[in-house]
Write a structure and sequence with these properties.
The protein is α+β, with helices and mostly antiparallel strands. The chain has 3 helices and 7 strands.
Amino acid sequence: MVPQSDVKVIAIVLPLMLSSGFLSKPSRKTKMRTLSRLAFVLLCALSASPAFAQTRLPAQITLDNQRPASLIELVISDAEGKAVARLSRPLAPGKKSALKLGKAKGCEMSIVARFEDDSEVDETLDLCKEKVLRFRE
């Protein structure tokens, strides 16, 4: 099955190639002009697609502990279950800390946090959009 965005690209590109004579024996100049037009059209089409618009995972995120208990454990995992980051030392109440992220596939990350008062947080977040993790009561 072809995604709808790809169908739109094909619907734009194919007539362009046919009308320019690209499929019949064109001159070198015609080929270059058509290829540059084609590249422009593809770039415009791809930049409008959601997959291209997806931002990259940041190198680090900020942890903000607004709970009355210390954050004692934090593991961030990618969709495949691979740990991308771990808390190296407890984060006291009211404190902030930067946490470096390792290489990961995608933006959707599983966040598992455990606090000193035995409460836990288990969520999935888009870390390409959420660059600050605020823990509140």
